[in-house]
Amino acid sequence: MLKLLTPFLTSLAAGEIGLTLSRVKRSAIFLSIIGIFGAIGAVFLLVAAYIALSDRFGELRAALYIGGGAIAVAIILYIIMKISDAIIRKRQRDRAKTDTTALLTVAAIAAAPMLLRSRGLLMLALPVLAFGGLSMLGKKPKTRQRRRRDVSEELRD
């Protein structure tokens, strides 16, 4: 039965991959055109800002103001990028912990019938499970630090 469905399933998967690839290509073309026109617009805005600032402050100061502003924006964007990378890495670590816990739980559940069938293994596994349970009970839960916003809200109330 599965042999009869295999060509259908592969053609379905290939068709969806082809549609996805064509959509990605189309999006890449449009985004590159948008990027080019956006860069042209940004250059003309910078030229207009330079002309306006040079009339008011002089050419040297105008160039310094625009250059300093560009560096300030770059530094701000770099800081934002680093903060978002740290948040993403933390989420990935938390997800990995959750996945590991789920995998170990599934493995323990899968091994349980074999352990319960063998009397010798059951006698060996019982103290290990008891020790694991007691060690989990003995751990103190980590207390989360309250955010400053929460503390300030409590002070207002």
Automatic annotation (TrEMBL):
Q: Which UniProt keywords apply?
A: Membrane, Transmembrane, Transmembrane helix
The record's annotation in InterPro entries points to:
MFS_trans_sf
| Record SUPFAM superfamilies | MFS general substrate transporter
- Where does the chain cross the membrane? 28-51, 63-80, 100-116, 122-138
Q: Which domain of life is it from?
A: Bacteria
What is the name of the protein in this document? ATP/ADP translocase
- Source organism (scientific name): Phyllobacterium ifriqiyense
